[in-house]
């Protein structure tokens, strides 16, 4: 089973939820945790795991043969990233840090003066703690192609998954609804959408749930810090009810979660009482998925 944890807005506590669910699942099942927030990965820190390099991630970039180049400037005109700078009667200058590897310059070159080489844009790491296999992608500083890192991360996590024959894969996505998040969600069985009782969080939650609906992935809502603003919490309840989306968990606003982050320990290690909270979320996920599969069988 593949479960994606996302939320739209940053800072809602999705990494806390993802790591806590992984710890709870790992009590009885082989579990992999994939940290797909490749610009700021921190799940390994929250679980005090040591990382080791698994593989590098590369991206194609152009290389010019100036003996063939006619200085026409077509490569610069087609580059939407402005990675190619052209001055009349000069050879094009290339800013490789900005290039996203689309190959448009190579396609448009009338002299076939452009071939492709590659540059490193990130790294995949592995680690282990609390009986959890942790796989992390990390974008190289200054690079832009975070979506490609996530895609590579998903590919490598499948390799590791086959070797370990794990039963549960939890994917902790980045904030937002862009390409890196979409690459995290596609191909999963369930989406845990983490939110909090604030207007901006609800606004972004709606956008994430639209993605879930678009990809036809079953989803449930976890409300973090639910007791922070009870009147707005009820607005989230109303939205969930009107859209037939279950609230699968409510997490209180407690200092234990701050201590968990500071001490780099799962919150269930700080206070075992929270086991009930995350067990309930897991039970609700299983229940929701069981209903989905029963409905599919009925439709067949």
Q: In the CATH classification, which architecture of the largest domain applies? A: 3-Layer(aba) Sandwich
Overall average pLDDT: 91
> What fraction of the residues are assigned to beta strands by DSSP?
15-25%
Order of helices and strands: EHEHEHEEHEEHEHEHEHEHHH
Give the biggest sheet: 9 strands, mixed
**N/C terminus separation:** 22 Å
Could you state the CATH homologous superfamily of the largest domain?
P-loop containing nucleotide triphosphate hydrolases
Instruction: Please report the total strand number as a whole number.
Output: 11
Q: Supply the number of helical segments.
A: 11
The unreliable regions are 293-300
- Please bin the fraction of helical residues: 25-40%
| CATH C-level category of the largest domain | Alpha Beta
The CATH topology of the largest domain turns out to be: Rossmann fold
Dominant shape: elongated
Structural class: alpha/beta
What's the number of structural domains? 2
Rg over CA atoms, rounded to whole Å, is 22 Å
């Amino acid at each position: 089973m593949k479960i994606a944890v996302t939320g739209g807005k940053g800072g809602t506590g999705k990494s806390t939820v993802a790591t806590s669910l992984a710890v709870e699942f790992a009590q009885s099942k082989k579990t992999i945790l994939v940290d797909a927030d490749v610009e700021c990965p921190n799940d390994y820190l929250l679980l005090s795991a040591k990382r080791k390099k698994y593989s590098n991630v590369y991206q194609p970039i152009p290389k010019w043969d100036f003996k063939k180049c006619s200085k026409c400037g077509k490569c610069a005109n087609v580059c939407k990233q402005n990675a190619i700078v052209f001055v009349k009667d000069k050879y094009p200058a290339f800013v490789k840090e900005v290039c996203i590897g689309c190959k448009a310059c190579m396609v448009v070159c009338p002299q076939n003066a452009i071939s492709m080489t590659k540059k490193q844009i990130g790294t995949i790491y592995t680690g282990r703690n609390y009986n959890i296999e942790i796989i992390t992608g990390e974008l190289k500083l200054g690079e832009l192609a975070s979506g490609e890192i996530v895609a590579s991360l998903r590919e490598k996590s499948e390799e590791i998954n086959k070797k370990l024959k794990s039963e549960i894969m939890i994917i902790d996505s980045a904030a937002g609804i862009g390409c890196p998040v979409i690459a995290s969600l596609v191909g999963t069985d369930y989406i845990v959408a983490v939110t909090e009782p604030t207007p901006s969080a609800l606004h972004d939650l709606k956008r994430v749930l639209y993605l879930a609906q678009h990809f036809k992935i079953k989803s449930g809502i976890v409300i973090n810090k639910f007791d922070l603003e009870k009147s707005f919490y009820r607005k989230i309840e109303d939205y969930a009810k009107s859209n037939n989306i279950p609230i699968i968990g409510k997490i209180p606003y407690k200092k234990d979660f701050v201590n968990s982050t500071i001490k780099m320990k799962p919150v269930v290690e700080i206070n075992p009482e929270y086991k009930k909270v995350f067990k309930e979320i897991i039970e609700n996920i299983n229940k929701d998925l069981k209903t989905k599969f029963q409905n599919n069988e009925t439709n067949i």
